[in-house]
Specification:
This protein has about 550 residues and is of the alpha/beta class. The protein has two domains: about 10-15 and about 30-80 and about 360-490 and about 500-510, no CATH class; about 125-345, Amidase signature (AS) enzymes, CATH 3.90.1300. The chain contains 18 helices and 14 strands. The chain has helices at about 35-45, 50-60, 65-70, 100-110, 135-140, 145-160, 175-190, 225, 235-240, 285-290, 310-315, 370-375, 380-395, 410-430, 440-450, 455-475, 505-510, 515-520; strands spanning about 30-35, 170-175, 205, 245-250, 270, 275-280, 300-305, 320, 340-345, 365-370, 400, 480, 505, 525-530. It has a seven-stranded mixed sheet, sandwiched between helices. Strands 11-10-12 form a three-stranded parallel sheet. Strands 1-13 form a two-stranded antiparallel ribbon. A hairpin with a 2-residue loop joins strand 5 and strand 6. Helix 1 (about 35-45) runs parallel beside helix 15 and helix 14 (about 410-430) packs across helix 15. The chain is globular and about 70 Å long. It holds the Pfam family Amidase. It comes from Oryza glumipatula. One of its GO terms (molecular function) is catalytic activity. Keywords: Membrane, Transmembrane, Transmembrane helix. InterPro entries: Amidase, Amidase_dom, AS_sf.
Length: about 550
């Protein structure tokens, strides 16, 4: 199979009339789980036969043709940082850089529109009420409820949904005594009229890829917490703690972030609160599911390839990955240096445009849509997303521009090589001393593939990153946002044969990551929200109302 020869990026037509060929992912790997995945691992780890199998897998899935052996004219681009562009905007307030975390929270709150409704007035709604941070803050300030009361309801709910009846596996670890202690301190501050910020007393769940005392950081494994001590809070956790947030424990995740389903044979597979028989998505599975189930209004995840936004989409919540470098990676497991960073999951998709006094200031928003890519999803997803664009046009006058984003599949494969190479490099000092039996079967396959990537494949991936950075910057000269579905498929069934072994399902995996790669590979901010689709998100089967009246 001849390697691809790329022409210079500047010669590629990005218009709707482009002759660029769209490659839909044609993953050639069957789903395997249970005994079959074990047999496959044994074959893959054989000295000679394993190398032959890996070569065939990479060849059949076009990694060799499109990445490793390709001829690419651009030089490598190793980081996805962006130059600061200070564009004057109407009615926009810039936060002062030297403010403390509580002061920054206060500035953010002052930008939000005032609410005219009483927090807990009236009867409970029939559809799920996703209480916001401000709802909790107002309830605490008014004395309608205290952080201690909410913490106790949270602990009761976690105990119930973690039991054998539901077995939702939202959390890897949580410490009731520590949570109550934090809530008591917050309650006392409210009683004295001295809350630290609007975040005081707010329950925040933390993905077990982020350091948060007093817990070990396992990365979804059963060994990393012993091998790597957690000595201090991660930077993002320290900021939340300084604002008075109640850190509510460490949420479950796909082992080492090396999967998209949230199936974890060590700590239980996180189930989707909308339907516990389906996957929650990954790798920030527990964070997304905990927010979906009403256990906390916000949670932290880590997004290296859609790992915040994918489970957010499958669970029907909001997932946000900021611009590369916007949040500190200090205290986050260094599983993927150049593509991963902390992200945020929250329960409310309502559109707020803070400080914008007139909709006239947003009338000229242009949305870029690559139709072939956009439409490469299931019919129900495609229909919902099309309705969202129609709604934005009807309400705000936003226009959709037809564009071509070249080499989408090439970018997915280049990202895969990058994240895999960085993962094995960062974990090498642990993996070299580790018994293979301590690693999940599906992750052993992933690590085997990651370790097979050559330096040439990695360097060519960074050349492709350079090309994609050019393509996207050109598109952003005429458009403000690139729009797409978040996933190509909805949450699929959680099958029993995968619970103890994990599963290899690269077809569904490729469909789940189809639209998420640019955000990570190019360091762009990205968010998944529900608008036209909100009516489909009914009350989850597993849902808790922590602000209910006793």
């Amino acid at each position: 199979m001849a390697a691809k020869v790329y022409k210079p990026a500047a010669e590629v037509n990005l218009g709707p009339d482009s002759d660029e060929f769209y490659i839909s992912p044609n993953v050639k790997a069957p789903r395997v789980a249970g005994l079959l995945v074990k047999i496959f691992v044994w074959i893959l780890e054989m000295p000679i036969i394993g190398s032959m199998v890996l070569y065939i897998l990479k060849k059949d899935n076009l990694i060799n043709k499109l990445v490793q052996d390709a001829e690419i004219p651009e030089p490598p681009l190793f980081t996805s940082t962006h130059s600061w562009e200070d564009i004057p905007e109407q009615n926009v307030c810039l936060t002062k850089p030297d403010l403390s975390p509580p002061e920054r929270v206060q500035e953010a709150v002052s930008c939000l529109p005032a609410s005219l409704e009483s927090t807990l007035a009236g009867s409970p709604p029939s559809s799920p009420k996703r209480w916001t941070i401000r709802d909790f803050n107002r309830a605490y300030s008014s004395g309608e409820v205290t952080p201690v009361q909410v913490a106790k309801r949270f602990l009761a709910a976690v105990k119930e949904c973690s039991g054998p009846g539901l077995n939702m596996a939202f959390f890897i670890s949580y410490n009731p005594e520590d949570i109550i202690r934090q809530a008591e301190e917050s309650t006392l501050r409210y009683q004295r009229g001295t809350p630290l910020s609007a975040m005081d007393g707010i329950l925040v769940a933390v993905k077990d890829e982020i350091d948060c005392l007093p817990y070990p950081t396992t990365g979804g494994t059963r060994w990393l917490g012993r091998a790597r001590a957690c000595a201090a809070d991660a930077a993002v956790v320290a900021q939340l703690r300084a604002c008075g947030a109640v850190l509510a424990g460490k949420t479950n995740m796909h082992e080492l972030g090396a999967g998209t389903s949230g199936i974890n044979p060590h700590h239980g597979s996180t189930r989707n609160p909308h339907n516990p028989g389906r996957v929650s998505g990954g790798s920030s599975s527990g964070s997304a599911a905990a927010v979906c189930a009403g256990l906390c209004p916000v949670a932290l995840g880590v997004d290296g390839g859609g790992s915040v936004r994918m489970p957010a989409a499958l669970c029907g919540v909001v997932g946000f990955k900021p611009t590369a470098g916007r949040l500190s990676n200090a205290g986050v497991l260094p599983l993927n240096w150049t593509v991963g960073m902390p992200g945020i999951l929250a329960g409310t998709p309502e559109l707020n445009l803070p400080l914008l006094k007139s909709s006239l200031s947003i009338k000229n928003i242009k949305l870029a849509k690559y139709a072939k890519w956009f439409n490469d999803s299931s019919e129900d997803i495609r229909s919902c997303c099309d309705k969202s664009l129609q709604m934005l046009h009807a309400h705000y006058g936003w226009e959709t521009l037809d564009v071509t984003i070249p080499e989408i599949e090439e970018m997915r494969l280049a990202h895969y090589v990058t994240i895999g190479s960085e993962c094995t490099a960062s974990l090498a000092k642990y993996l070299d001393k580790l018994k293979r039996s301590e690693i999940g079967w599906d992750v052993r396959v992933a690590l085997g593939v990651y370790g097979s990537f050559s330096s040439r494949a990695y360097l060519n991936s960074q050349r492709l990153r350079n090309r994609q950075m050019y393509f996207h910057k050109e598109i952003f000269k005429t458009a403000d946002v690139i729009v797409s579905p978040m996933t190509g498929v909805t949450a699929y069934k959680l099958q029993d044969d995968a619970l103890k072994s994990g599963e290899l399902d690269y077809i569904n995996g490729a469909a789940l990551v189809r639209y998420s790669i640019a955000g990570n590979f190019l360091g762009l901010p990205a968010i998944t929200v529900m608008e036209a689709c909100k009516k489909h998100y009914k009350k989850p089967e597993v849902f808790y109302d922590l602000l209910k009246k006793d």
